[in-house]
## 1
Amino acid sequence: MTMKTLFLCGLIALVSGSVQAQSVEETLTKMGITLIAPTKPTANYVKAVRTGNLLFLAGHVCTRADGSGIMGKLGKDLTIEQGYEAARLTGISLLSTLKAELGNLDRVRRVVKVTGFVNSAPDFGDQPKVINGCSDLLVAAFGEKGKHARSAVGMGALPQNYAVEIEIVVEIE
């Protein structure tokens, strides 16, 4: 086959719908990521609130599937790399809640905003490098739709001494 024929066959397949983009969950599986059962709220709040086509997720902390978490202050107890992993785990927790709320992660039209809180020693100033653990995961999972506005701030303390807490806002179909 000539290049022109291959191109035309690909274009026809794309237009006819026989070539489908990879789903977000397939992307996560290829990345070796397994979503976890969302945790229950620990106080008087809900994990997600929808208004119009926006879904606001409450702050999530860095917990593993076994329920354990990453605790401590960045710049004192934990390195930037450990903080990055904490933010990545928090991102998996957020995706797990999104999946539970929406039934299908492909319903996410756009990740709009990420707000990251980092349990920081007073002289620690690399909060953006830590929250990149979540941001990088969202962009890897959703592609261009995962690029978002963001805040990454240091906190004197977080609940139960977790290293990271993150909340997100997504636009949904």
Note: The helical segments are 3-16, 24-30, 80-102, 127-142.
## 2
Amino acid sequence: MSAVGFAIIAVSVFAASCMQASIGFGMGMLAAPVVALIEPALLPGTLIASATVVTLMVVIRERQSLDLRGTGWALVGRIPGTIAGALLLVWLPTQGLSLLLAAVVLGGVILASLGWRPAPLRRNLATAGAASGLLGTATSIGGPPMALVYSGAEGARVRSNMSAFFLVGSVMSLVALAATGSLHPDIARTFVALIPVVLLGFAASRVVNRVLDKDRLRTASITVSALGAVLLIGQQILF
């Protein structure tokens, strides 16, 4: 990878890290299309590893708003979803899988835009966790299902619970990818090189969080979810 290519990826990871630390998700959505254009072999491992660093820091920062029971139910669903995502990544064509999952996300976005607000109850959290595990492991874009369940919640609660979920979930995804041979040394080297960029993005999120009230956070979550699904569809169709 050229120096220019790395610089472009670094800028996208900086912005994605800031978004992840501000609305609770977005690392894969914002950065995955850029990485796919420059060095697709780095997906999804590099972004999942970077998201692990961001989510750990957000959990520490927002720990007082953490609901371990709700996060636990989401993780119950994440386990089978992660396994399914890793297996589907090996068995099925990536394009078809990505298009199907993106369509599901867009369906949820449309419902949310029409006023649908699924309550963060056990069943909904487990279902969203499974969908997020499947989507995140297969494509590195796993935020929308959880974002839809937590839409409407207060900012610190959204960030803390989604980050706790994605922290554990990202580790699960990395283990699953390693077990299926989808990680390689280039991913590890690029991840290490991007750590300073990730830290800068997290620091920048403190400024963004000052202007994100509950309504703005919901709007941002729905908008970013829709954008991520559209970018994923465009990526698979064009490339």
Note: The chain has one domain: 3-238.
## 3
Amino acid sequence: MTELVDPLTPVGAGMSTPDTQYPVTLTVNGQRRHVAVEGRRMLVDVLRQDLRLTGTHAACDQGVCGACTVRVDGQTLRSCITLAVQVDGAEIRTIEGMATSPEELGPVQQAFWEKQGLQCGFCTPGMMLRVEEILDENPAPTREEVREGISSNLCRCTGYQFIVDAAMRAAEIRAERGSEA
């Protein structure tokens, strides 16, 4: 006869508990970082609280709004629904890593500034990282392709027109700067 086991009760030696710490190594904005995290910690919390990179915003905590968007190994990802242990060893880019240098904005940042692609600024970090990914995949998108591409990120202030204008301007700046962008 098979014995029934309560799935909520840890069985056997060496089982983890909710407080078990796991070593995680991340390369964040080009800098290798080591953190110990509970298995249930979300990436957004590790970035904001442990690494003090507060440009990544937490809003819906359900992966719906896009405010927490970061790039993991080149792809945008919702950090509010991603466990930090899932991205162990990954390359992560946050809004803090977008500038070309301390003195020069990155092309997407420059375009958002020029074209007023923000109002309150809450969605802006995630939106900029999403636009950057769109332009990496298609350096000369149409306005409709940009609209479709940013539809995964919500903005409650701008009506999106200035964001689309900024994305189009960012494509121009990247083309002007060449491969450095």
Note: The first strand starts at residue 21 and ends at 28.
